[in-house]
Amino acid sequence: MKAGQKPRPQLRIRRINLDTGRENVAVISRHSRALRPEVFRGFSRVELRSGAKSMLATLLITDDDSLVGAEDLGLAEPAFHRFASPSGSLVSVTPAKPPGSLDAVRQKILGRTLGAGDITAIINDIARFRYSDMEIAAFLVGSASFMTTAELLALTRAMADAGTHLRWEQAIVADKHCIGGIPGNRTSMIVVPIIAAHGLTIPKTSSRAITSPAGTADTMEVLARVDIGVGEMKEIVAACHGCLVWGGRVNLSPVDDILISVERPLGIDTREQMVASIMSKKLAAGSNHLLVDIPVGPAAKVKTAMEAMRLRKLFEFVGDQLGIAVEVVTTDGREPIGRGIGPVLEARDVMAVLSNDLDAPRDLRENSLRLAAHILEYDPEVRGGTGYARARKLLEGGAALRQMQKIIDAQGPSTCRTELGTLTVDIAADKDGVVESIDCLRLNRLARMAGAPIYKGAGILVLKKIGDRVERGEPLYRIYACEHSEFELVAAAANVRSGYRVDDRPPTSFAAR
Amino acid sequence: MKAGQKPRPQLRIRRINLDTGRENVAVISRHSRALRPEVFRGFSRVELRSGAKSMLATLLITDDDSLVGAEDLGLAEPAFHRFASPSGSLVSVTPAKPPGSLDAVRQKILGRTLGAGDITAIINDIARFRYSDMEIAAFLVGSASFMTTAELLALTRAMADAGTHLRWEQAIVADKHCIGGIPGNRTSMIVVPIIAAHGLTIPKTSSRAITSPAGTADTMEVLARVDIGVGEMKEIVAACHGCLVWGGRVNLSPVDDILISVERPLGIDTREQMVASIMSKKLAAGSNHLLVDIPVGPAAKVKTAMEAMRLRKLFEFVGDQLGIAVEVVTTDGREPIGRGIGPVLEARDVMAVLSNDLDAPRDLRENSLRLAAHILEYDPEVRGGTGYARARKLLEGGAALRQMQKIIDAQGPSTCRTELGTLTVDIAADKDGVVESIDCLRLNRLARMAGAPIYKGAGILVLKKIGDRVERGEPLYRIYACEHSEFELVAAAANVRSGYRVDDRPPTSFAAR
Questions:
Q1: Residues A227, A247: Cα–Cα separation, whole Å
Q2: A222 dihedral zone (left: phi>0; alpha: psi -120 to 50; beta)
Q3: Within 13 Å of residue A184, how many CA atoms lie on the same side as its CB?
């Protein structure tokens, strides 16, 4: 088709102030003589070319000449930035062939097993924004029904290779990861300073919240800047043995972020996709020793010990194949950890533990020490079984707090507003009894309604935990909000359904139990 | 969450001249005080409410106050029309919960079998435009890996129930359907007048081309108006026993069109989805006798006799359950039928057959007679085995032509430009030999490049068929185009790859065969 083909007419790029999320969107005029949009009917995607540059985009059509004239090609913000040609420059537009790797997606949908080459091609096309959301959904759903361990491994490698690879000089580069879901579970911010104080390298990158009220990056941002690039991150780690930065800026496994943004609204979340997501980030981060924390509980991501074991085996398999020493621990995921939910309240819990405050939350402290103990024993110098004592010494002696301060100083001061919300309401027990269960999903949702993580000072202070005795009218938790509208909404919602179950049956005798 | 909840702030609807295809798209200002778009981060979808009306839409964000001000909610064209509230009217906007039926989609993705209630809920949500393209893709791909016959049946019923149901007085309401893919295969336009001339009722609705150079509706539109509503269609059928109208206006199984618009770009096309698509339309059309034509050939949708048989069984099963007497025939799908590809050229073939022209294409005539013969035998008055003779009599005696003219008069004159393209180029054989194969997909693609079906007069006139002897330089087919740009493009493309394979080996002796 190349021989004798006249070049397609060219259009002038025009920037359209429209944030279309991840997807590339182009807009042409229905009156565009150059394009004859009817020809594009039946094609949902177009290919833009300018010199050696090429980009796929979803095409929308307009009759509004003030938006896009007959000689223009409008590009919505993300597409405009990605194509990186100035307004007014010429571009040719043709109906896009679907990305070649979509054939492999179809094979997968038909139940075939894909080779590493196919998977790499798919991931590379996604990384280059050549897939529409619909096509990404097709890949994810097609892979959700089954994925072989070989496919999982290829997927993990391809995802890691599609972004930045960090390299470290040290023989041991430690990392920890919690699969999440439990509010207040900010152990990373205690484990990292303990490990770094010991002298092991732990360059921790964390995510911001997507559907939860706070990610570790959101909470750390209360104390220090986290939006830090690769070069600066390396300097900080060289100086402090560790860091607590936002992973987004470092561009580790960027396809993971794309896949997550489609998985979340669809609510698909398979074990294999979770493992590929986490392990691709760790591989890209250059970690060679990884501790994975799997909270188990009725409202946690993993509900039973059996599920946790299956997940553990997958982590171990992939870790072994990638040369990452993986250790998996399960923790109690029945209720929130610590007292705070939301960035400011969680940061207070963290600093209370590091400062050895007498009223620091015990569960957060214990979990952190236990996780740190495992990691410390990666150090050949640390004698088997002494990790816990070493962790405790570093914490109680103040070394961890000093190390945290050093890391905070190195990362620089936060520029966020970090005062606690001034609007508060206490949600009270509606009967006497004992707290029987706490719905973590409900508390997460209420904390988000209160404004977290957008308002760092919004969130929930947990006052009662499972097993605590409460009287009717006694507060179960306190909600903090920063703006009136959120405050009224969340107070009403929490009063309708608090997420707490209080058991008011008379205490059973030991014999009856 | 309802008790005590204050109503969300309201925005003013503003129409945005942007054709976003099927998907509902809403646009708000990043500065919208009423909404605080950050709260919507992590939600891709919003719910609009005004009185009892409610609609889901995908949310885009803009900084351009001239597009959408801080107090406005922009609605792209399809969303604006569907919400059907005037510009300036007030609407409240909240983060949308995903449609409830998406839970069933997740179950399907996990490999479970869905009940009829789940499937009906999914189809109803899709019909009400509550699914994003991504969510539709998830449903289709999740169903592609397996679908039980019970699920297939429930899907077919739910799709038929989501649109108009036609009802007919007659005991026998005949229909025919070709699963498509073969260029020039316009048998419906010959079968319908034969059957109607006989006196059987055959209210035929057809589709326009989506990815092919012509659908039956496009070709019929060369001869008559096809954009006809239910009431008028019933009058035409009462007067003529049959019609040839566009199905889109009649709103039969509208979800089918939505699903197809996602299936096509993804290239997923399972047997079950094909059967549900076709049978839902026939059920909604009120047909009780259906003849399905399955062309079999290397570039057809169905490649082997075995595949055709599997598909036949599915059609028969669903037909039996729905009370539609289904008969399936396979036809030769190795090469184009007739000579014309594209609306005007195909309409000429059809009229040549109906007029009993001596040079009318024999394959189109034979196929049509064979199909008509089957349908005629649905009539209890027609003795078994005599259908073909009856069909031939109706055709050769001129009754079919007169019936076609009656249908054309009843439907009214076409308003399209229907002259043949004036730009032509002949594509010639590059060696002496015998035509061994013709790539139907390639000819379809070239005819589309030439402008069909947008330009009714664009297309291809097939001059040589399989088995024909050709000399080097002798034309294989002629391309017709209406505009210069298409003409140059398609001529170049056809010269690079004609789609014909000519075998130049010396003819083998009978003995060697």
A1: 8
A2: alpha
A3: 30
Residue B489 near chain A (CB below 8 Å): yes
Instruction: Determine contact: A89 vs chain B, CB below 8 A.
Output: no
Mean pLDDT confidence for B384-390: 95
The predicted-structure confidence for B322-335, as pLDDT tens digits, reads as follows: 999 999 999 999 99
Q: Encoding tokens for residue B490?
A: 């398609």
Are B144 and A264 an interchain contact pair (Cβ–Cβ within 8 Å)? no
Q: CB atoms < 10 A from the CB of B344, how many? A: 26
Long-range CB pairs of A309-314, under 8 A, 24+ apart, other chains included = A310/A271, A311/A179, A311/A271, A311/A274, A311/A275, A314/A149, A314/A152, A314/A271, A314/A272, A314/A275
Q: Which of B64, B65, B103, B269 is catalytic?
A: B269
In the three-class reduction of DSSP (H, G, I as helix; E, B as strand; rest coil), residue B438 is classed as strand
Alpha carbons within 13 A on the beta-carbon side of A323: 8
B496 in reach of chain A (CB within 8 A)? yes
Supply B126's token pair: 């899709």
**Touching check for B169 and chain A: CB below 8 Å?**
no
Q: What backbone torsions phi and psi does residue A117 show, to the nearest 5 degrees?
A: -65, -45
The complex's ipTM works out to 0.81
Where does B333-463 show beta strands of DSSP type E? 340-341, 423-428, 433-438, 459-462
Q: Is the Cβ pair B137, A142 closer than 8 Å?
A: no
Distance from CA of A492 to the nearest CA of B (A): 6
- State how far the Cα of A191 lies from the Cα of A353, in Å rounded to an integer: 11
E strands present in B155-278: 174-178, 202-206, 242-246
CA distance B296 to chain A (A): 21
Please calculate the CA angle A256-A262-A268 and round it to the nearest 5 degrees: 95
Share of chain A above pLDDT 90, in %: 73
Question: Could you give the dihedral angle defined by the CA atoms of residues A426, A432, A438 and A444, in that order, rounded to the nearest 10 degrees?
Answer: -10
- Output phi, psi for A364, to 5 deg: -65, -40
- Which of A2, A15, A17 best probes binding to B when mutated, by most B CB atoms within 10 angstroms? A17
